[in-house]
């Protein structure tokens, strides 16, 4: 399996996991019924795919489950008992090892395993599942595990019937000794099913779109109505990037929504590489080698690095990856905000120009240095969008909708004045002088 290149900075920037006062994107999808499903879902979030076939297969599988509206057919309580029971594997002295579990534990554990195996067979045998082409391979793997000769007696047992001590002991030897590995494999398949059905339900509930994956060499991303899944009443935006125009230069005043848009875009592309539905009306994309964002880059106090130097180190890291021929999707929010305006201007033009010469990769750069746009406009590979601010008297209002071009909006002083900061400072000075 080929995985997408990314890092903790990107995962932190895109706020996938809960931290502080914000909930993560992972929480939206994490409605799994089992602990194993939850762990697998987190693994998927930390290891997106970079394989066209694997992404396409997972997307198709979840889409088909969503279309059927199937529910997870297992009880979480059965998993708790089965996992506790199967975790205690007898050693060479089997009789002594079995004493670690009480007779009640053995009874509940074997019954739970029998119940799960019977429910698994019933699930994969129903017509609504046998007709799922995208699930055929995984369904066949489960069927082969369940059809092992040693397990055939399991399916003749009355569901959740109380077993005699002799029968319990026989099944205990079967489950924890002879067929332990096969049963653990079945559980792993059920954890996968838990994730698929959960994500399918999220797609239906939130009306998320299933991305279309292309395998062309010409890298491109097309999004219609993309929005941030964690923002209530979020505004959707359309964007096309790639081909002859592989760089987007984004401008807009403070509070106009640039960072939220960048997170929306990065989140959608990242989730698409997981094979998951995304917060958009529609999406098409080609698979990249890596996704890297720099939205909330901290100072590196451990090496005494300022914010500006941290940006330089980040750029050096990306330059090294690009030099290896990697196709990357890169997002920089407020590039070079850690240095003075003159240096930021010159560096923004130089670096953005260099990015435009990497046609296999795509870049989205937001900046307050709108003057840099005049020079960058000479580069055919650079496109321009902005998030506008409309003044209602002295009050700025934001549409959060992308428009083509470069904004000249500068309303920082208006916001400062509306907040009454200068008045508070003046009054404080008067009180001190008095």
Features:
434 residues, alpha/beta, ATP binding, DNA-binding, 13% strand, Rossmann fold
Architecture overview:
- The chain is an alpha/beta fold.
- It folds into 2 domains: 31-206, MutS, DNA mismatch repair protein, Chain A, domain 3; 212-428, Rossmann fold (3-Layer(aba) Sandwich).
- 48% of the residues lie in helices and 13% in strands.
- It contains 17 helices and 12 strands.
- It has helices spanning 8-13, 25-29, 35-46, 52-68, 76-86, 94-98, 103-125, 127-130, 136-146, 165-178, 180-206, 258-274, 307-323, 341-355, 372-376, 412-418, 421-433, and strands at 212-214, 220-226, 237-242, 247-252, 282-286, 290-294, 328-332, 362-366, 382-387, 389-392, 395-398, 403-404.
- The strands form 3 sheets. The protein has a 6-stranded mixed β-sheet, with helices on both faces. Strands 1-5-2-3 form a 4-stranded mixed β-sheet. The protein has a two-stranded antiparallel sheet with strand order 10-11.
- Helix 14 links the parallel strand 7 (328-332) and strand 8 (362-366).
- Helix 3 packs across helix 11 (180-206), helix 7 crosses helix 10 (165-178) and helix 7 packs across helix 11 (180-206).
- The mean pLDDT is 88.
